[in-house]
Each structure stands twice: as C-alpha cells, then as structure tokens.
From TrEMBL:
It comes from Streptomyces fildesensis. It comes from the Bacteria. Pfam families: MFS_1. The chain crosses the membrane at residues 21-43, 49-72, 84-104, 110-138, 150-170, 176-199, 220-242, 254-275, 282-302, 308-339, 351-369. It is a multi-pass membrane protein. Keywords: Cell membrane, Membrane, Transmembrane, Transmembrane helix, Transport. This is MFS transporter. It is found in: Cell membrane. InterPro entries: MFS, MFS_trans_sf, MFS_Transporters.
Length: 442
C-alpha cells in the first residue's frame, strides 16, 4: 500500500485543525511550560507550604482530575470538539486564578487550584485527539496527532526555558509567571473556541443491526499504563539514578531532558510518517520492545565505572526517546481507528484514564524501586514493558474487518463533514493525501 512520506506543512496544519487552532496549541503549551515544571516550587517558596504537603496536593489534583474523563467522553460523543478543547483550557484559567488568590500557608486552596489544573491537563489530550480525528482521516490523522505532540513539546520547552531565566527574580517572578500562564490559557481557549468545529453525533447502532460492537481494548488500556512510564523516565527516573546513585553532575540530567525534548520535536512527525507503512498495532508493540531494550541498556550503563556510567546513560536515553516517539505516534492513533464513531469520545477518555493513571503512579513506583538497586528498577520496568508489548501484539481488535483501518471516514464511521465557522469542510486534509490507501491493514 502506498503511503504519504513527505511533510507538507500547510496541508498538515489544515489536517491538524487549521492555523488558529495550531496557534492555540502553541500558546497553551507555552503557558503550561511557564508554570507546570515549577508548580511545586511555587507551593514551597511563594505559599510557604511544606514540600510533602505540596507534593501530595499536586498528586491528588492529578488523580482526582481523572474523575472528569467519563463526562468528557460523553460530551465528545455528543459532537462537541473545539468547545471541549477550549473548556479544558478555561478550567486551567480557573486553576491559575485560584493559585494566585491562595494565601500563604493555606494548603487547601492550593490543592483546589491543583485540582482544576489537573482537570484541564487530563481533559485536553482526549479533546484534542477527537478534534483531529474529525478533520483528518487515515494516516493523515496519525501525522496530525504527531505534529500536535511535536508542537506541544516545543512550546513546553520554550516556556520552561523562559521560566528558568526568570527564576532569578524570586517569589515575585513565580507569581508573574503564574499570571502570564493564566493569560496564555485564556488566549488559547479563545483561539480554540473560535475554530467552531462540531461533529454530527454518530447514531448509536441498534440491536440486531449487524453493527460492530465497541472493542473493549482491555489489553491495550492495561498495557498503556505501563507504556506511560516512559514519559516520566527522563524527568524522574534518570535524574534520580544519576544524582543519587551515580553521584553525577545535575548537568547530565538537564542535558538528557533537553535532548529528549529536541528529539521529540524534530523526529515525532518524520518517524510517524516513516512507520505509516506498518500496522499501528505492530508499531506500538515495537515501541514496547525498544523501551525494554533501553531499560536493559540503563541497567548495563549503571554497572559501568564511575566515569563512564553517566555518558552511557545519556547515550541509552536516545534509544528510550525513540521508543517514546514510536509509542506516542501509534497509541492514540490506534484508539481513534478501533473505536466506533458513537463511542469515540468515551474510548479516548478511557485511554486518557490509563495514561493519566500511569503518569500518576509512576513517580511513586520509580522512587520505591530505585533504592533497591538498578536491577530492581530497570529489570522490573523492562519485564513489565515487554509483557505489555506482547499483550498489545496479541490482542484481538474485535472488528469484523480484522484490524485497523487505513482508509478515510469509513475506518471507524467518523463523519467526513464537519463545520468550521460557517463553512462545511469535506475531508479538509485531501490536499495532504497524495495516494488513497486501497486496503485495510491489521
């Protein structure tokens, strides 16, 4: 089957929701990068809370924020698209406002602010994926999702760099950063809402109509909890190992994090395009194998001599990032393909629940395993990830056509007509498609 392997920026922007929506994503990511990495620092230095209390409040905010996902899924299944994206950004505006209004020494207002920030952060990925799934189809959808992730990582990185440069200003600088973050979220919400994209709700199939049932995807969702750990490896696991076990300079941790961001920004779209020749399920399983190999590589690297361990960890981290790129480029796309139209929102919400849960528990798991030595940490992660890759590869899709679709709207019954502003858009990414796939690949 022929596939598109060239990056066409203008058509890719259209397939991702249009120029205004792309700007909204960039502004939102920039604002998130300004505050999210320093939220703990804000609680400790500005609000004078203890580090454990601040950390617990942030964790509770993330976990409780997951409770909103079923409601988000039902909202999406009623056809809402840009409205849900804008709402996820506006919720974070409320969180920032509460943060700025929190008096020093009061943990509950801070926890409430963290909750609203958590709700927005959890709701956004599913809403964004549903929006892209409405305006792009087939492999163009995969590329558009990959482009959105690359753009978001770029915005997060730039925001974090700007915030780091401003930290010399002390507590006042953190408060200013929080205020700027709120304004960025508000601007992004206005831009996203202005897209006015709404999908016609898909009719729920009646009993006996011969319609395909919604796939349960239990193995995929369970495996995704483990896969999501890779997203916290550069931020949590590697700094912990490098600084506390290898006694290496913190510069190594910073360099690995920057390299991870740069690689994701530059390679996410090209790698996703390259892997479009292969089934999404196979790519996701391959991502698990690559991540497993990287975890075993970290285990080997930490056993080297004191002068070689840190550079070896840095080299292996590139392999880990490749696994992350493969995972991010295939997992959400696979869900959008396998989910029937009438439960697309709820399927994406369930997927985000598994991702959010994995991200929430991974810091506790990593910090609990690390004191028991490299074998306990990296060996456990490698074994769990390899088992997850096997589960992904062997799970039945439960679709009559036998696998995922690479075709257009017919692949999951998604609507081909949506409304952007006052103009009906028919397959807006047609300019990006150079060849029409003629087969369904398992």
């Amino acid at each position: 089957m022929a596939t598109t392997t060239k990056i066409r920026p203008r058509a890719l922007v259209r397939a991702s929701g249009g120029p205004r929506y792309a700007v909204a994503l960039a502004v939102d990511a920039l604002g998130t990068g300004l505050l999210r990495p320093f939220l703990l620092l804000y609680g400790v230095t500005v609000l004078r809370l203890s580090a454990p209390a601040t950390g617990i409040a942030m964790t509770v905010g993330v976990v409780v924020g997951l409770v909103c996902m079923p409601a988000v899924g039902r909202w999406l299944d009623r056809g809402a698209r840009s409205t849900v994206v804008a709402a996820s950004m506006l919720v974070r505006v409320v969180g920032v406002a509460l943060l700025l209004a929190t008096p020093a020494g009061h943990v509950w207002p801070f926890a409430t602010a963290a909750l609203f920030l958590g709700i927005g952060n959890q709701a956004w990925p599913a809403a964004h994926a549903a929006l892209v799934a409405t305006v792009a189809h087939g492999r163009e959808r995969d590329t558009a999702l990959a482009a959105g992730r690359a753009l978001r990582n770029a915005g997060l990185g730039v925001g974090a760099l700007l915030a780091t440069a401003c930290l010399a200003g002390g507590t006042m600088a953190l408060q200013v950063l929080a205020a700027v973050t709120g304004l960025a979220y508000l601007t992004a919400a206005a831009l996203a809402w202005s897209v006015h994209l709404h999908a016609q709700p898909a009719a729920r199939p009646t009993q006996g109509s011969g319609a395909e049932p919604a796939p349960r995807l239990r193995a995929l969702l369970a495996a995704n909890v483990v896969y999501a750990f890779c997203l916290n490896v550069p931020e949590i696991a590697l700094p912990l190992v490098l600084v506390t076990q290898l006694h290496a300079s913190p510069v190594w941790s910073a360099a690995i994090f920057v390299a991870n961001t740069v690689l994701v920004v530059t390679l996410q779209v090209p790698v996703t395009l390259l892997m479009s020749r292969v089934s999404r399920r196979i790519v996701l399983a391959l991502a698990g194998v690559v991540l497993t190999a990287s975890y075993l590589g970290f285990l080997a690297a930490t056993s080297l001599g004191h002068g070689w361990a840190a550079p070896a960890v840095a080299v292996v981290s590139v392999l880990c990032t490749v696994g992350e790129i493969l995972y991010a480029g295939s997992a959400t796309a696979l869900v959008t393909v396998l989910a029937p139209a009438h439960v697309l929102g709820r399927s994406l919400a369930r997927f985000q629940l598994s991702t959010g849960f994995g991200l929430a528990v991974s810091p506790a798991v990593i910090t609990a395993l690390a004191p028991h030595g490299p074998a306990a940490l990296w060996g456990s992660l490698a074994a769990a990830t390899l088992l997850s890759a096997g589960a992904v590869a062997s799970e039945e899709d439960g679709r009559h056509h036998g696998g995922e679709g690479d075709i257009g709207a017919g692949e999951s019954g998604l609507p081909t007509v949506s409304r952007v502003g006052s103009v009906a858009v028919h397959d807006p990414c047609a300019a990006y498609r150079t060849t029409a796939p003629d087969a369904v690949r398992p």
